[in-house]
Design brief:
- It is a single chain.
- The protein is α/β, with parallel strands linked by helices.
- The protein has 2 domains: about 1-230, SGNH hydrolase (Rossmann fold, 3-Layer(aba) Sandwich); about 245-340 and about 405-528, 3-Layer(aba) Sandwich (Rossmann fold).
- The protein has helices at about 1-20, 30-35, 40-45, 45-55, 90-100, 120, 130-145, 170-185, 190-195, 200, 210-225, 255-260, 270-280, 310-325, 345-350, 360-365, 380-390, 405-415, 430, 445-460, 480-490, 515-525, and strands at about 25-30, 60-70, 80, 85, 105, 150-155, 190, 245-255, 285-290, 295-300, 325-335, 420-425, 465-470, 495.
- It has a 7-stranded mixed β-sheet, with helices on both faces. It has a 5-stranded parallel β-sheet with strand order 2-1-5-6-7, sandwiched between helices.
- Helix 4 (about 45-55) crosses helix 11.
- The longest helix is centred in the N-terminal third of the chain and has 17 residues, at about 1-20.
- The N and C termini lie far apart (about 75 Å).
């Protein structure tokens, strides 16, 4: 032990001398940080590759230190054989502290699988993982109060064949990891998405440790976090600039029937007259829209509203007319997006006190780390088939993968602290059937799971009206899904709007062109 202490003391002294006047970047964590299994760890580990990227950008300004230790985790009381597993006990932690880093990049959590689930079953105190993680990082704040600390909030993926593949724990951890990142005052690092795309090729035979190409992707992702000004601090979604007036906030979410604007239903003379009438009504009220695509607020007027959500806009017009208030819409919609895109992986992987999934179908989808086009657990083959072809289209397929819409749109709204008056949900076409020929419904249990989870997710614990638009008439076997919508609404207290019973829809078109009757039904359901 004395030799090890002297060795680390020598390393720290040498690094301190070499790094004078340089920004010191300490990479702390487990075997992925260490570079276990790499043929040339000194050159191929992600900290080593990060050093080269920083040197290329800012020669001589950064010194990166690799303080990884294989098999380490967060829990201070967790054991690895006869020794403690927690990174905070390790000599690398002490060496990193003595180095007094200016930046800390922390990757921990995977080795806590097997222990973390106990926080949900009652075998561990809930919140222990988060508390122990903060205690670890507090050490770095003590030695350098100005240190920027980055946390991997979505961990590197595990491939099929790895011990904890299919475990819900890495996904359940995300909320706690995100809380730690917020406490640090920085944006968390998503290491799951960059590595998932080619995970079969970039993970070693043990199905967990990245090869040199995988380490390069990690280095590039960390490099972006370090050099992107937006990562310096967390920014919250701001209230609408006009919200000093009497107002309401509504979250409007869904796929193309929520997305499409009046400009797409403006072809025939009848349609033109309808659109002109709606725009004339819009000009007399105060309606604003926050678009998740760019994160900005826009006051909707006849000159700019044709490309905005026709359904959402017409609903807002009627709310504004009836209440005399300004209506502010949080718009989160993309063509074809399935329910899974609007759900956090934590919700999809939720477990009960028995440790078993609350939503088994959703848990199976989320824990399969591949994208939807490779995810054999996802029942809608149309989405799976279309996704690879359309993935470059940011307006549509870009938003289809699991949790994409949640991360980009739902999460900022829920975290904003802005009081939402209600939720308008018009979705289901991508989850109702398997979309094979002939069309067959997806499993009823799966349908109910997605619907219950969506109500829970979008409400975010708030007791607000949730208006669910039932699927309208069309020549597809949607009867079972409509029944599931009704049941889910009865169970959750959501409001089911029966557009089918009202005779709405088009037998041959998934996009009914007249959105006004739908908006009127939704407005009536909202209490006006």
């Amino acid at each position: 032990m004395m030799k090890m202490k002297l060795r680390f003391a020598g390393i720290v002294l040498a690094m301190a001398c070499a790094a004078a006047a340089k920004t010191r970047v300490a990479c702390i964590g487990d075997s992925i940080t260490f570079g276990l299994g790499l043929a040339d760890r000194e050159r191929e580990s992600y900290p080593a590759q990060l050093q080269r990227l920083l040197d290329e950008r800012s020669p001589g300004e950064y010194e990166v230190g690799n303080f990884g230790n294989s098999g380490r985790g967060v829990y201070l009381d967790s054991m690895r054989g006869s020794e403690k597993r927690g990174y905070r006990w390790m000599p690398e932690h002490k060496a990193a502290l003595e180095w007094k880093p200016d930046v800390v990049i922390c990757n921990l959590g995977i080795n806590d699988c097997g222990e973390y689930l106990k926080e949900y079953t009652g075998e561990r105190e809930r919140g222990r993982f988060e508390r122990d993680y903060k205690a670890l990082l507090e050490d770095y704040k003590r030695v350098n109060a100005d240190a920027r600390i980055f946390v991997w909030t979505k961990l590197a993926p595990l491939a099929e064949g790895q011990k904890f593949y299919r475990s819900p724990e890495p996904f359940l951890m995300q909320a706690d990891l995100e809380s730690v990142a917020q406490w640090c005052g920085t944006v968390g690092i998503d290491m799951q998405e960059p590595l998932r795309e080619g995970m079969d090729a970039i993970l070693a035979k043990d199905k967990i440790h990245p090869n040199a190409d995988g380490a390069r992707i990690i280095a590039e992702t960390v490099f972006k976090a370090l050099t992107d000004p937006r990562s310096a601090s967390r920014t919250r979604l701001q209230a609408c600039p006009d919200d000093d007036l009497p107002h309401e906030y509504w979250l409007c979410a869904g796929p193309s029937n929520m997305q499409k604007g009046w400009g797409e239903f403006n072809a025939t003379p009848e349609e033109k007259a309808r659109v002109e009438s709606e725009m004339a009504r819009l000009a007399k009220v105060n309606v604003w829209m926050w678009d998740f695509n760019d994160g900005t607020w826009t006051k909707l007027e006849p000159g700019n509203a044709l490309r905005k959500s026709a359904f959402g806009t017409s609903f807002a017009i009627r709310r504004a007319e009836a209440t005399g208030k300004a209506i502010f819409i949080f718009y989160v919609a993309a063509g074809g997006a399935p329910s899974e895109s609007f759900l956090s992986e934590q919700t999809m992987c939720a477990v009960g006190k028995d440790g078993k999934p609350i939503y088994p179908h959703l848990a199976a989808i989320a824990t399969n780390r591949h994208r939807l086009d490779k995810n054999g657990d996802f029942p809608c083959s149309w989405v799976a088939r279309e996704y690879p072809r359309r993935r470059a289209n940011r307006d549509e397929a870009y938003w289809w993968p699991v949790s994409k819409m949640y991360d980009a749109g739902i999460k900022p709204v829920l975290e904003s602290g802005i009081a939402i008056n209600g939720i308008l949900w018009y979705q289901g076409e991508s989850n109702a059937t398997t979309c094979v020929s002939p069309d067959t419904p997806t499993p009823r249990e799966y349908q109910l799971e997605t619907l219950r989870a969506v109500v829970e997710e979008l409400r975010g614990g708030r007791d607000v009206p949730f208006i669910m638009m039932g699927l309208p008439e069309m020549n597809r076997p949607w009867e079972q899904y409509r029944a599931a919508q009704r049941q889910a609404c009865e169970e959750t207290g959501a409001i089911y709007v029966d557009s089918f019973a009202a005779g709405l829809g088009d037998a041959g078109d998934v996009h009914p062109r007249n959105k006004i009757p739908f908006a009127e039904l939704a407005a009536a359901a909202s209490g006006i």
